[in-house]
Amino acid sequence: MTAYLTVMAISAGIYALLALGVNLTWGMAGMVNLGLAGFFAVGGYTTALLTKSGVAIPLGIVAAAFAAAATGAGVAVITARLRADYLAIVTLGFSESVRIAAANEIWLTNGSDGIAGIPGPWRGVLPPQQFNLLFLAIVVAVLIATFIVLQRLVHAPFGRVLRAIRDDEDVAAVAGKHVLAFKVKAFAVGAAVLGVAGALYAHETSFIAPDIFAPLLTLNIILALVAGGIGNNWGAVLGAVLIVVLLEGTRFAAPFLPFLAPAQLAAVRELLVSVLLLAILRVLPEGILPERIRPAVFGRQGR
Asked: Which residues, given as ranges, of the chain have pLDDT below 70?
């Protein structure tokens, strides 16, 4: 049971990183990014290819962050003039393009067979349970560091400009802000976080394949962000943990539904998760921890 809970905590930490990365682009900058699985894959494949060739794991993770950031910046430049639904469609198409490329470029990604034997920190030296505990500590440390950096961005001038662009980018441009530059920076930083999450996933599971980066992953993270609270980093983390708890908790419904086939049971689990999330949003339409913006204070108090 301890091993199971440890693995679930690692999954929750990786989901939280994904939610934080999306929250920066969507929650703060207003750019709907449905391509998170693509950046997740870029990070995972980058570190997998590098570390299997002998590069140290920390360098592989850093390279994954830079590769995903560069990809994110390129996507942002291409989609700079798109808004709302059009941006969502294009980023989703980008994600699917990455997955299809990974499935077909056998010379690079080994195709649908995936890449196995990705090294992990002291894997094979430590017993499995100790390795999982060590990796959980690494994921928590990375999550805390990422959270602190993104929280600083929220309260920094950079974060205030992103929120201004989200609310009305034309007004932000009139105020003298280079909207395109801020969008590219936000997309790059958010994609870097997604790339780090992909790298951690690759080192934790020791295997990646194109099927892992299916659109369902994007849907789960979007649901986590909506349930937790868009625009709030605390809400992003809480929503990610909630999604993992719901996804895994519904597994225990199997003994109460013995008359269902495995495929039917999987569909019922997805339905239960959807119903529970709808119940949360019915009571809390802005999420459990909605964004709280302190109103600006003009002049001195008392005048």
From this structure: 293-303
